[in-house]
Task: inverse folding
């Protein structure tokens, strides 16, 4: 088993994107290789301008809950998703975009932040990454 | 051999770990990285990360909730 973490990011909810990026930055910081496989609602967060756009998975309350949560997060000095994403890339994290989701959602590569994406793939790509991973998560 | 200072006072999870890792990446062999912070979990976790990265922990000090960790690359 190699020292690798692979995470499927299926949810596009803000709090879950936080979970995915915090866990993956932790894994990179502790010396593991890390891949994030963005699929379904998660892939929408890779659209241009989309990273911070996700709703809260609970207590969203038409956006009011999210505003409250963001306020509390700023107060606790939690990093923004953009900063966590920049750190993830700087530490060598890999991003895979699900091609089937792109078909379903009618997304072209130019709709996505191509500078963040290392690879476009399907389930086989995920399995190849995951079979060599000590940690795999579905978020 | 340079000494690199990383100040993560006021920062919370996962920033102290990430900033430590970035500094280690940029450092040369033999450089000393000194991280200063106040996040309690990071005081435990930075040494764990250093160990996982096979780096030597030179010292861990704490004074009035501010800790300093020195790592040798």
Result:
């Amino acid at each position: 088993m190699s020292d690798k973490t692979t995470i499927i990011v299926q949810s596009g909810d803000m709090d879950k994107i936080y979970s995915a990026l915090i866990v993956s930055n932790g894994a990179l910081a502790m010396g593991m290789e890390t891949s994030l496989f963005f699929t379904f609602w998660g892939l929408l967060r890779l659209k241009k301008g989309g990273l911070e756009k996700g709703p809260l998975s609970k207590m969203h309350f038409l956006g009011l809950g999210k505003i409250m949560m963001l306020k509390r997060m700023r107060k606790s000095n939690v990093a923004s998703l953009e900063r966590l994403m920049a750190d993830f890339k700087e530490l060598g994290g890999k991003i895979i975009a699900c091609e089937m989701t792109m078909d379903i959602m009618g997304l072209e590569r130019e709709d996505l932040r191509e500078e963040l994406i290392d690879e476009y793939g399907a389930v086989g790509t995920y399995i190849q990454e995951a079979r060599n991973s000590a940690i795999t998560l579905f978020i | 051999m340079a000494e690199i200072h990383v100040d993560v006072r006021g920062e919370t999870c996962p920033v102290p770990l990430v900033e430590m890792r970035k500094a280690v990446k940029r450092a040369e062999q033999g450089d000393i990285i000194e991280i200063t912070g106040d996040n309690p979990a990071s005081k435990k976790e930075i040494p764990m990360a250093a160990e996982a990265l096979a780096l030597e922990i030179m010292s861990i000090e704490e004074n009035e909730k501010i800790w300093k960790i020195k790592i040798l690359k």
